[in-house]
Every structure is written in structure tokens, then in C-alpha cells.
């Protein structure tokens, strides 16, 4: 049972949709598929433009940095993915300033306000909606609104790789919203998407930048339901199938189920003595702080067939992360916490009494 916060398992209906022969990307047949997928994406994003890129999520992060920063970037680092925005700036010799916090701590809105007020060169801010390194959620809605009030010309770029498809994101003040195929969209890795505001489109078109990640040429092509270079045809077919399924379920229902799964998992794990790591947990995953992370994960995988993620860098061996993104069966989520409780018993930490499963079921089905 793969329960890592990316990659997530590819459901059978999506695998079937992607199993046909490869079709040529410069055909009416593929244009029709592209158009259908693009329209569904526009609906999910609720933004005026959306681009699909043949790359992993980081490619879309790079494209946003290079296409939307003219003078100086403000990057928000509360974990590995926020840190990456700064590394991209550095790689391209783009001037940047970073606001750094511990991986359990969301950035302070005041800090952002003061940094922007004191530095008139900043023309773009880069932040995660959910920082997957520690499973925290930044207060993106408030941050975006504060930034736009200070200066509407500053581009607000949000990495929603573990947020889009998880929850409804208010895009009113967001200029670029990034995602990737292998997390909430349950596809194989290799496709990245960027939703854009009208202001972002204007800024990109004013000064086309780069070659492969030249978003101006992608906008021009994708408006006509084609791509500048060979499209990731198979993944786009898969994305169409996933988005149709999401629409059948109802976007709102999908978000509600994910939030409930996150809440029930957190309550169950707290009830058996675990501490939730982030100060403001996101719904994409449950992150627990424990010095026994490695032992717990090893037994979970080998004995109970539950594959969850650990931590990186200074959090290696100190946290574990259970995924809630995508379409996860109730019994799978319940089994994850039940198995975790069994592992605690095996490690002699806490005698098994079925608390995790009971609290999960109560929270999930009885609403308390
Ligand atoms: C996974 C992830 C990325 C990186 O995406 P890749 O597809 O591995 O390049 C970026 N940001 C966040 C928040 C992620 O969770």
C-alpha cells in the first residue's frame, strides 16, 4: 500500500486510459484531447490561463522564476521545496532574498510585509501552499492579499504541488499556481501545470524569456490546443481521465473527503500518543514527529505492507508522513493508523488496544 505524499498510486481507470498506442501530437485527434483536458484544468484552477509542461514539478518552478522575476525575488523557505526556489534564483543569477523558518513553522505575514516595504526591487514572491518537507500549510490567501495591497505589480507565485486537487485554493490574488502530475493527480511523474492570472500573462508576454521554458511561446501555442514542443501526450490523456473522475465526484466532495481523512488520521495518531509536527498542518499529508520514525516505517512496510515517507535533511529519522492526496479508500486510511498502533505495540512503546482504529472511525463516520 503506497501511502507516500508523492508519488501516489495510479488508479486502474487512469492506467487503462493511458494504455493505448501513442498518437501523434500534431493531429486534430490529439488537439481535441488537449482541449478537453485544458478546459477541465481551467475549471479546476479557476484561473484565466493554464499551461501544461513536459517536466516534473520543479520545471514549472524554474519556469515561473525565470519568466516572472525581472528584478528581485522574495523566496519563502520553510522546508526543502521553499529552499529550492532560492536555489533556482541562484542558478540563474537572479537577485533574491529569502525568509527562512524551521520546517514546522509557516512564514509570518508581518515578515513578508516588512521585507517588501523595505525593498522596492522585489517584483515576485515564491511560496508553497503546502510545504511538503514538513507537511505545513502557509497562510497563502492572507499573504497573497497583503502583497497585492502593498503592490499589485508584485507577482505572487504559489507552488501548489501538494495543494491543488487537495483543497479549494482562492486564486483571487495569485498570479501563478504550480502543480505536478504525481501527487494529488495520481499520475506517473513527468507533467507539470501552471495556472496564470491575466496580469501574469501580460508580464510574460511583455518580455519572452528562455527557450524550453519560454512561457510566452507556450501561451501562444496552448491557446490553440497544441504545445511548443512535443506534448506529453500519454500523461495528458491520463490527466483528462483523472479530471473527469474528479468532476464526477465533484471537486467540493473530493476536498471534503481529503480534509476528513486528514482530520481522522491526525486524531487517531494523537490518541495513541504521537505529536503532529507542523504548527499549521496541511490536508495533503499527516506529518508526525518521532525519534522512532525509521523503526516504525520499517515495520510498517515489511510486516503490514504500508509504505509511508520519512523526513529529509535534518529531519531524516525524525518524522514520518502519511499521504492523504488522491482517491484513497476509507479502509486504506484506517488500516494505516491501525497498523501504526500495532507497530507501537511491537516496539514496546504502547500496548495495542484498538484506539487508533476507533478514533479514526469515530472522526471519519460520526464526525467527532
Ligand atoms: C514534490 C514537490 C515538488 C517537486 O516536484 P518534482 O515533481 O519532484 O520536481 C515541488 N514542490 C512541492 C511542494 C512538492 O511536494
Relevant terms:
2 domains; 15% strand; binds pyridoxal-5'-phosphate; Aspartate Aminotransferase, domain 2; single chain; Aspartate Aminotransferase, domain 1; alpha/beta
Could you please describe the fold and organization of this structure?
- The structure is a single chain.
- This protein has two domains: 12-249, Type I PLP-dependent aspartate aminotransferase-like (Major domain) (Aspartate Aminotransferase, domain 2, 3-Layer(aba) Sandwich); 251-366, Aspartate Aminotransferase, domain 1 (Alpha-Beta Complex), CATH 3.90.1150.
- Helix content is 45%, strand content 15%.
- It contains 13 helices and twelve strands.
- The chain has helices at residues 12-17, 28-45, 57-68, 80-91, 109-117, 140-150, 198-206, 215-222, 233-249, 251-271, 293-304, 330-346, 355-366, and strands at 49-53, 72-77, 95-100, 122-128, 130-131, 136-137, 155-159, 176-180, 192-196, 275-276, 285-289, 319-323.
- Strand 10 (275-276) and strand 11 form a beta hairpin.
- The chain binds pyridoxal-5'-phosphate.
- The site of pyridoxal-5'-phosphate (PLP) has 12 residues, from helix 3.
SSE blueprint:
Blueprint: H1 12-17, H2 28-45, E1 49-53, H3 57-68, E2 72-77, H4 80-91, E3 95-100, H5 109-117, E4 122-128, E5 130-131, E6 136-137, H6 140-150, E7 155-159, E8 176-180, E9 192-196, H7 198-206, H8 215-222, H9 233-249, H10 251-271, E10 275-276, E11 285-289, H11 293-304, E12 319-323, H12 330-346, H13 355-366
Parallel strand pairs: 2-3, 2-4, 4-7, 7-8
Antiparallel strand pairs: 1-9, 5-6, 8-9, 10-11, 11-12
Bound molecules: pyridoxal-5'-phosphate.
Pyridoxal-5'-phosphate binds at residues 6, 56-58, 81, 128, 132, 159, 161-162, 180, 189.
Amino acid at each position: 500500500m503506497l501511502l507516500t505524499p508523492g508519488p501516489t498510486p495510479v488508479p486502474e481507470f487512469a492506467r487503462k486510459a493511458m494504455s493505448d498506442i501513442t498518437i501523434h501530437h500534431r493531429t486534430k485527434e490529439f488537439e481535441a484531447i488537449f482541449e478537453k483536458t485544458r478546459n477541465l484544468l481551467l475549471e479546476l484552477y479557476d484561473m484565466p490561463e493554464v499551461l501544461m509542461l513536459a517536466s516534473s514539478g520543479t520545471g514549472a518552478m524554474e519556469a515561473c522564476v525565470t519568466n516572472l522575476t525581472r528584478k528581485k525575488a522574495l523566496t519563502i523557505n520553510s522546508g526543502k521545496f521553499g529552499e529550492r526556489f532560492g536555489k533556482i534564483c541562484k542558478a540563474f543569477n537572479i537577485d533574491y532574498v529569502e525568509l527562512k523558518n524551521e520546517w514546522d513553522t509557516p512564514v509570518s505575514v508581518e515578515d513578508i510585509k516588512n521585507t517588501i516595504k523595505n525593498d522596492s526591487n522585489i517584483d515576485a514572491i515564491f511560496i508553497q501552499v503546502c510545504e511538503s518537507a514538513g507537511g505545513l500549510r502557509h497562510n497563502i490567501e492572507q499573504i497573497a492579499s497583503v502583497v497585492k495591497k502593498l503592490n499589485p505589480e508584485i507577482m505572487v507565485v504559489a507552488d501548489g504541488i501538494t495543494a491543488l486537487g487537495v483543497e479549494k485554493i482562492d486564486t483571487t490574488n495569485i498570479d501563478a499556481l504550480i502543480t505536478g502530475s504525481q501527487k494529488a493527480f495520481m499520475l506517473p511523474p513527468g507533467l507539470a501545470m501552471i495556472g496564470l492570472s491575466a496580469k501574469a500573462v501580460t508580464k510574460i508576454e511583455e518580455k519572452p524569456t528562455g527557450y524550453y521554458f519560454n512561457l510566452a511561446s507556450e501561451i501562444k501555442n496552448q491557446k490553440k490546443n497544441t504545445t511548443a514542443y512535443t506534448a506529453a501526450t500519454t500523461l495528458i490523456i491520463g490527466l483528462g481521465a483523472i479530471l473527469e473522475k474528479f468532476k464526477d465526484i465533484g471537486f467540493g466532495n473530493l476536498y471534503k473527503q481529503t480534509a476528513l481523512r486528514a482530520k481522522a488520521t491526525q486524531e487517531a495518531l494523537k490518541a495513541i500518543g504521537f505529536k503532529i509536527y507542523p504548527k499549521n498542518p496541511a490536508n495533503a499529508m499527516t506529518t508526525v514527529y518521532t525519534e522512532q520514525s525509521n523503526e516504525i516505517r520499517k515495520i510498517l512496510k515489511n510486516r503490514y505492507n504500508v509504505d509511508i515517507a520519512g523526513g529529509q535533511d535534518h529531519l531524516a529519522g525524525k518524522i514520518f508522513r502519511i499521504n492523504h492526496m488522491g482517491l484513497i479508500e476509507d479502509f486504506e486510511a484506517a488500516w494505516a493508523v491501525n497498523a501504526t498502533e500495532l507497530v507501537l505495540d511491537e516496539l514496546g512503546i504502547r500496548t495495542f488496544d484498538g484506539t487508533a482504529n476507533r478514533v479514526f472511525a469515530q472522526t471519519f463516520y460520526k464526525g467527532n
